[in-house]
Design goal:
The chain is α+β, with helices and mostly antiparallel strands. The chain contains 22 helices and 14 strands. 34% of the residues are buried. Pfam families: LON_substr_bdg, zf-C3HC4_2.
């Protein structure tokens, strides 16, 4: 690129930069202007400034849905209520977004954890969260459904039918910029530009910094042959978003239209078939314009560029700030953290929607694999010990099992804690009671899970390859309880009892899972114990025991 032209564009001297690329003659052929226009626009885009949006305007498009609980169901990407909510593959707290917001994402925007490509490509909407949305926000979900139907009708060419669906949705949600934008597109396809322009203006009023609204407005004004206004909208669009190729193509077209109108002929038009074209002549290509006239025309173009960047940008920032203040105020008034149930919701119905289909109790630390179903974390892991598939839909969960990132669904956990606190306390108590026998095995007469295999001795290291479902559960419970302890007894099935009366406590030093759920355990013997009684629970042999007799004697 010519350094002189580069410096001129950096200083926003559009006239001089344009003329610099042309011959220095007093008259210029229109073919010369046409030939250099595309290259100039490309360079112009490279040095056109970018709008730096104040940080507070990141909140400009927050959800304004009335009702308790909306803050829990707000997408962290688009700021609206979830539409087709999907729960990502996060290691601790799994975060939820609209499906369209993360369809190409490889990293969670909330916690920054990476999303495996195999997982993101086959993720399904969370059915439990969707059921809650349908129950708590029926009007908003109806709007989403109408919009989806309108989108399908547009694809099928039924533009009037699409307008009807969008209008029906707008009647329920008159503050959705997306709905007005979609209806604007339908009006444009019907060539009803007056109605389309009205919807485009409404879209911009609702979301002043959304590039799509300005893009739609520029297209409509161009088709209405309002060249000056179309160019201003396109320049404003360039300030907001120049990454889309359609934006660059639109700017080239507006520059060409502007020059065409000012000069008085169509610079890029092909000559119609005539006797002269048959002889190979092209009158428009030979037409000339004086450098002085072109300078005057380009000065108008430069004035438009400068005025758009100053007055129009200042205006749109002011509108965006006002919109942000209104949206944030509405968010504070409607998105309350109150523990009151959403309007019309009953605890019984919420409990029904939040019941684990495996244990038939309230979801406890719920996790949502990529198939979309939700279960208690401990329930799903026990199922995966037997087969790596969803117990409801039989979807293959091998990838989910391989990564072993059983993050708790943040949305479901927050909703249960806020609106079903009593039930959550009861459910937590039940879980803690179940874990208590595992975490207090150091007392002198308690139960311990028995791994029936070989004889082990205190101080003796022991390595295990655990693949049976019952023993995989045993290892997981030992780790989750915090004790890291289980009992080891020798198999004595041929001598009456299944295992010996004397065993050794093993302490897990290290546990490593494989992709298919098996695990390798490194343990060491701690002390001996004597079996008092035998029992079985969840397929695991349990034994009541008394501590090492030698340890008791040492205390005498």
């Amino acid at each position: 690129m010519d350094k002189s032209q580069e410096d001129l564009l950096k200083r926003e001297r559009v006239v001089d930069a344009f003329l610099h690329a042309l011959p220095t003659t007093e008259t210029l052929k229109l073919s010369q202007i046409t030939n250099m226009l595309d290259a100039f626009v490309y360079r112009f885009i490279s040095y056109y400034p970018t709008l730096h949006v104040p940080a507070m305007l990141n909140e400009v498009y927050r959800t304004s849905v009335d009702g308790s609980g909306a803050d829990i169901f707000t997408c962290g990407s688009c700021g609206q209520l979830f539409e087709d909510p999907v729960t990502l593959f996060c290691p601790d707290d799994s975060h939820t977004f609209c499906k369209n917001c993360v369809k190409d994402a490889h990293r969670c925007t909330t916690c920054g954890s990476s999303v495996p490509i195999e997982f993101s490509s086959g993720i399904s909407p969370s059915l439990t969260i969707q059921a809650l949305l349908d129950y708590v926000f029926p009007r908003k979900m109806k709007c989403y459904e109408n919009r989806k139907q309108g989108n399908r009708l547009i694809k099928n060419g039924d533009f009037r039918g699409a307008i009807g669906k969008y209008t029906e949705a707008i009647e329920h949600d008159g503050n959705s910029a997306v709905l007005f934008s979609n209806r604007c597109q339908a009006y444009t396809l019907l060539e009803d530009y007056t109605s389309a322009l009205s919807d485009a203006d409404r879209t911009i009023a609702l979301r002043p910094l959304w590039s799509k609204g300005h893009y739609r407005r520029a297209i409509i004004l161009s088709r209405m042959d309002n060249v000056q206004a179309a160019l201003e909208s396109t320049l404003l669009l360039m300030l907001l978003d120049r990454t889309v190729m359609a934006t660059r193509d639109l700017l080239k077209d507006q520059f060409r239209r502007f020059l065409t109108k000012e000069i008085g002929i169509r610079l890029n038009a092909e000559v119609e078939s005539s006797s002269e074209s048959a002889r190979g002549s092209d009158p428009s290509a030979e037409a000339e314009v004086s450098r002085q006239d072109l300078t005057t025309i380009l000065q108008r173009l430069e004035n438009t560029v400068h005025s758009t960047k100053t007055s129009m940008v200042g205006k749109i920032i002011e509108e965006a700030e006002n919109s942000a203040e209104k949206q944030i105020a509405a968010s504070k008034s409607s998105h309350t953290d109150s523990n009151e149930l959403p309007a019309g919701a009953s605890p019984e119905k919420l409990e029904e929607l939040l019941t684990c289909t495996l244990c038939y109790r309230l979801l406890y630390r719920p996790i949502t694999p990529n198939c979309g179903h939700s279960f208690c974390g401990v329930c799903l892991q026990r199922v995966l010990d037997f087969k790596p598939s969803c117990p409801q839909c039989r979807h293959d969960l091998s990838i989910y099992l391989a990564y072993r990132q059983f993050g708790v669904s943040e949305v479901l956990q927050k909703f249960i804690a806020r609106y079903l606190p009593t039930q959550l306390v009861e459910r937590t108590t039940v879980h803690q009671t179940e874990m208590q026998s595992l975490s207090k095995i150091t007392e002198e007469e308690m139960e311990v899970a028995i791994f029936v295999l070989n004889a082990a001795y205190p101080g003796m290291p022991f390595s295990l390859h655990v693949f049976e479902p019952r023993y995989r559960l045993m290892m997981r419970q030992a780790m989750e309880s915090g004790s890291r302890i289980f009992g080891m007894c020798e198999y004595t099935g041929s001598r009456g009892e299944t295992f010996a009366d004397i065993g050794t406590m093993l302490y897990i030093n290290h546990l490593e899972h494989t992709e298919d759920g098996r695990c390798f355990v490194s343990a060491i013997g701690q002390r001996r114990f004597k079996v008092l009684s035998r029992g079985m629970r969840d397929g695991i042999v349990y034994s009541k025991f008394v501590s090492d007799l030698l340890r008791k004697l040492s205390l005498l």
